[in-house]
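WARN no homologs supplied; continuing
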Amino acid sequence: MLNDSQLSKRELKRLALIENSIEIIGEIGIDKITLKEVASNLNIKQTALLHHYKSKDNFFFKVINFIVRKNNQMVQNLVEKSTGHSIDAYVKGNINWALRNRKEAGIILFLYYKASFDLQYKKFYSEIKKSAENRILLMLNEKDKNYTINDARALHEMIIGGILHFIVSNNDPSQHEIQSLKKRLQVIIKKDLS
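OK structure emitted
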């Protein structure tokens, strides 16, 4: 992600609009909120919001992309600092991020839902998913080059399923639940994630 000194005033304004809208979008729900409500919460007019983002979908794509990039950056920092297998840090990082940022995780989960019937969201989801699968494949192949994109895809789907379960249950997972998820992941990657 670019740091603030590398962004123009317009880009900084757009970034601030996104950052400051996440809370209200998470509270009301990305599927229910209107741009008028977002603008009101930001103390601006809807036309000002539309000046920066041409449509509700365009704005939401930018919000989701911001959240995904923020998550990726945080998880990548954990992976780089990890002394164990990086895939373990990746899984733990994503679960911990989702539990600490439930509203943001909920917004991302909305993308998965919306992609099931909206072609524009499906294309956007496919790009994000492909990027995640490629990152996972690189981590899997750090020590053993026998993994395929299908292994990475299965691991990604299981991580998303675990996060969805933890978010929907609305309470922190027990150590037993986390260990159970790790055991299922081990079946896919055939590695010890202790």
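Residues 56-81 form the longest helix (26 residues).
OK
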